[in-house]
Each structure stands twice: as C-alpha cells, then as structure tokens.
Amino acid sequence: MKLPTQTSHPPVTTPAANNRPLVSPIYQSVKFAYPDVAATREGLAHDGYFYSRSSNPTTRQLELSLARLQGRDDAVVCASGVGAIAQTLFSLLQQGDHVLCFGELYGPTRTLVRRTLARYGVKHTMLSIYDDADIEQVLATTPTRLVVFESPTNPVTRIADIARITAAARRHGALTLLDNTLAGPHQHGSYDIDYFLHSLTKYVSGHGDVMGGAVIANAELLAPVRRDFSLFGGTLDPHAAYLMQRGLKTYLLRYEAQTRTAQALAEAISDHPAVTCVHYPGLPQHPRHALACEQMQHFGTVVSFDLHVDAADLFTDALRLFAIAPSMGSAEALVMPPSLAGGFDLPADLQARCGMTTKTVRLSMGLEDASDLIGDVLQALHSIV
Questions:
Q1: For 115-146, how does the pLDDT look when each residue is reduced to its tens digit (9 = 90+)?
Q2: Least confident segment among 82-86, 161-165, 352-356, 360-364
Q3: Is the residue at 135 inside a domain?
Q4: Could you tell me if 235 and 282 lie in one domain?
Q5: Domains: count for the chain
Q6: Own/partner pairs for 47-54, CB < 8 Å, 24+ apart?
Q7: Assigned domain for 19 exists
Q8: Hey, is 84 helix, strand or coil?
Q9: pLDDT score for 343
Q10: What residues make up the domain containing 112?
Q11: What does the pLDDT look like over 228-246, one tens digit per residue?
Q12: DSSP string, 308-324
C-alpha cells in the first residue's frame, strides 16, 4: 500500500476474547463494516452495527445499563432529556389522540403537549397530580392514549400515587409515561409503568458536563419507538455515552449522599421563621410522606420551600455556595428562584392547585459538606428576615 492508503487503513488491534479492557472503549465511529455483502445482511438481521445514528456499541452499553437499573428490557438514548420527551411523544401519539397530563410537569413537556402537539391535532386534559378523583373520571369518560406524569414533581416535589394512576390507566386502555428524572433510574421500576423517561444530564452524568436523555421500556413496547428515534436523528454522541456510563459507576454513591444532605437541610429549615412551607417528601409533614415511604428508596436530592415574604431573588443573591443555574444532580449545589425557573404559563387557578408561587425557591444538593450548605442557606434566610 502507498502512504495515502496506509494512513486510511490502520492496523486492527482488537483484544482477544479473554483479554478484555476493564473500561470499555469509546467506539467513536459513525460507520461499521463487514467483510462482504452476505455478512452485512446477516449482521443487520441480528442487530449488528452499521450506522451510529441507529446504533453504536458505546451507546448500546449505556442503554442496556439503564434498562437493567430501571428493571426493564431495553432503552433508547438520545442527545438531551427534552429530546427524549419530544421524540417519545411524537412516536406514541397521532392526530385525534388524547393525553392526560398535569400542571406539575416539566415546563417543556407542558409546552410540547399544549402547543406543539396541539398543532397536530393531539388533544389533552391537564389536572394537578393530586386530583385523584378527577384522574379516574377523565380516564373513565375520555378515551385516552397516554398518561404523562412525574414523581417527584419539579420543583415542589409532589408525589404521584403511581399504583393508583397506573391501575386506572390499565383499566381504561391508556399507556403510562413517567418522567422519572428526579427519582433516578434505580427507583419506581417495580410499578406497572409502560415508559420511563430520564434526563441523563442530571444524575446519570453527575458532573454537569454532558447532555443526554433516555426512554426505557420493555423491548416489545420500545421497538417502534426505537425506529422513530433513528428517523428523528437526535443521536447521542458515543463520547457523551461513555461519560454517562462512567457516571453510572458512582451514581448511587452520589444520589445517596445528596439525598442525605437534602434530608438534613429540609429538617434544618422546616421551623425557620422566614419559611412557610418546606417541600420535601422525606419530612413527616409532607402531604404524601407515607406514600413516598412506600414508593421510594430515597426521597431525592431536591428541596424546595416557600418564603414568608416575596424575596426569592434577594435570598438567592445572598447564597454563597449555591450556583444560580438550571438542572440538578451535579457535584455543585444549585439554586433556582421562581423568576428564572418559570412555570407561570398555566392559568392562575391551576398554578395555585399545583403549588407554584413567586415565593418558591428550588435547591439542588451537590457533593459539598452538608453542614456548609445548611449554614449557607441559614445565613441567606437570616438576611431576609
């Protein structure tokens, strides 16, 4: 071979089967080749790799890891959490379908249902996740394709009655889709959920340096969704998948540590004179604490609370250790005041039913020392009393 040919055809250095790398390599390749046409056909017939928009060994390892953690057969990953939401909704819904959803949903999910999908003839009913009787009534009286909900909800950590919602949906022929991001992929897998959604940007990544999303389900349900994801083209880059697979190795350690900090902080401010209500399912006074104990192994890493006075921005500016930034699950503690978090696209009555106020602050725990974070919150609260 001449030099130009040699540089395009490097030697193959695949380890032997009994000599595997302890850390899986990054398959940073768009294309995968077979020795001949017959082998190509055979490989594609048995889920072999051909083009990374459809499948890649690195992203596939992440998918299988997430599916196992969530207690399902399969998963599809993509380039962002909201990409997973949008692509799954477009894959499952068509003109004339009805969606039951909730005001406590993630803002972009609400927008997708209320505006984007509505343009294509998808109808919806929006309730509060605490409207148990209305949930039953809507499913009993309105043919519904999909129930979309979260637990815990963002930002006020409301707890959905998962068993009740899934049983009602099953009775009336509706599919269920749970945005399980705040709970994490190790929770809620024992419930009769058809599809789990996750923003991998949060806890799976864990370091705030890579974005991704996933939908997790049993293989039969996921097969048509996977085909649509390939056509939508929101592919997760193999290097991002590698970083998330690496993040999974410390996922439970981080989640448990951040949950302990969240519990300690919630308890520390629950009786503070500047705070009227702390929203954390680990507190006995949370309206669905008993249900959270039944459904969850860990109560989560997000603590929200309502201030006594309308001074969320002043409180936020007084913090020294919490970065003003979106998302959660990072090594750094984060804060979002309502003026930046939004959530006020809903009618006022539904906002009130969903617990959204201009005095609500959301804190996401990092990996800092718990006493340092608690001290920072207490000094910031003192500054507005």
A1: 999 999 999 999 999 999 999 999 999 999 99
A2: 352-356
A3: yes
A4: no
A5: 2
A6: 52/27, 52/235, 52/238, 53/230, 53/233, 53/235, 54/230
A7: no
A8: helix
A9: 64
A10: 37-248
A11: 999 999 999 999 999 999 9
A12: SSS-HHHHHHH-SSSEE
